[in-house]
Specification:
single chain; about 210 residues; mainly alpha; Endonuclease Iii, domain 2; Endonuclease III, domain 1; 2 domains; 13 helices; globular
Length: about 210
């Protein structure tokens, strides 16, 4: 079962209202942030390849590399498989990322099937691919597949937002935050949106790309 799918701003508002009623601190955060973004992305190979491109580089660098990949037509599995690593490096991919891109292209993922697969299966399938960790898989499930009840506790901005909002002495570790987020089910993805928005308000800086 996929659970609830977030498809509209109204879905996000419903989740935010649920969370605000559940926890006074989340209600306080929502009062500060106002309406939360929908943040629905496309799904499929290109979205995951973009995530790989974005790893450990600035947003500007990632955008520049992605633009060159698009211009070269290297955003489909068949094209990645057909070219050499030197071709991929020529458009800006590091040696490691070229290997990751090829691994993703050769993985044979059934992206249509992921749309209806349980979230646990989505995470398991994607994390078998070199270069795709749990965080990337959870973000894909959250924003590309619209899963309402998935969280990304390894995200540093989420950890910091929780530290600030709940006045904790230090950032919660991934395991502790995952347990904490269970209380926000079945709207954990909306809780993530709320905490990222709160983080931006509290820190006056952007969260994830």
């Amino acid at each position: 079962m996929t659970g609830r799918i977030i498809e509209s701003a109204e879905d996000v508002e419903e989740g935010a209202a649920h969370l605000a009623a559940l926890c006074p601190r989340l209600r306080h955060a929502y009062d500060l942030t106002g309406p939360l973004p929908l943040r629905r992305n496309a799904d499929g190979f290109a979205e995951l390849l973009s995530a790989i491109v974005s790893q450990q580089v600035s947003v500007a660098s990632a955008n520049a590399i992605w633009s060159r990949l698009e211009q070269a037509g290297f955003v489909e599995p068949a094209r990645i498989v057909a070219v050499t690593d030197d071709d991929l490096r020529a458009v800006g991919l590091s040696r490691q990322k070229a290997r990751y891109a090829r691994a993703l292209a050769e993985a044979g993922i059934d992206y249509d099937a992921l749309r209806v697969a349980p979230t646990s299966d989505v995470i398991a399938t994607l994390t078998q691919v070199p270069g795709i960790g749990v965080w990337t898989a959870e973000i894909y499930a959250m924003f590309s597949l619209g899963r309402a009840d998935v969280f990304a506790p390894g995200d540093l901005a989420l950890q910091e937002a929780v530290r600030l909002l709940y006045e904790l002495p230090e950032r919660p570790k991934e395991r502790a935050l995952r347990q904490m987020a269970e209380e926000w089910s079945p709207w954990r993805a909306v809780a993530a949106r709320l905490l990222w928005a709160y983080y931006r308000v509290a820190k006056e800086r952007e969260g994830i790309r």
